[in-house]
Amino acid sequence: DIQMTQSPSSVSASVGDRVTITCRASQDISRWLAWYQQKPGKAPKLLISAALSLQNGVPSRFSASGSGTDFTLTISGLQPEDFATYYCHQAKSFPLTFGGGTIVEIK
Amino acid sequence: QIHLVQSGAEVKKPGASVKVSCEASGYTLTELPLHWVRQAPGKGLEWMGGFGPGADEPVYAQNLQGRITMTEDTSTNTALLELSGLTSEDTAIYFCATLNWNDDYWGQGTLVTVSS
What we know:
heterodimer; A: mainly beta; seven-stranded mixed beta sheet; four-stranded antiparallel beta sheet; 51% strand; B: mainly beta; globular
């Protein structure tokens, strides 16, 4: 199974800050990686697919990069609505797996 | 417009089984394979099983093998998840989802509580 390790597990930040979340795969997944945002009581929302492609409607302050085993999600200029939990997700092979999540909290 | 609407919350006793349904509208299930993902209280997302592209049979997470069954009723365009041998560890919100990067849709979630 491909293990996905996210860091940090939580980060405290202020509105306007830049936040970077990393995700490491236990083996090469090329660009078979997605990033999801989840708010309390809601289903996850797809932000990024294929490691770096922004989904329609997602603000451009979100960006992502990486391939192989190391990936990052960056939020440039954190907005109040960005406080949420973020998950990476590999779709390279079954079983599909998610990272443990990163909680972005208000400082 | 595509929607996935799940059945309501369930409370089950340990050892029982639960069935959760996911009715799709705006497309037919065979067009977009469905997956099931669960989330225990305060925890992360766990993939339970799903259909690969073009697959007739679902693939299940190894830790659920023997207890999980995923089926699709094409007459009602509804996916069904059945989980047997419930323990308190199965208390979670269960989501159906397409997990498709071009068409990523999720149900609203179904809370399953296992308690004696």
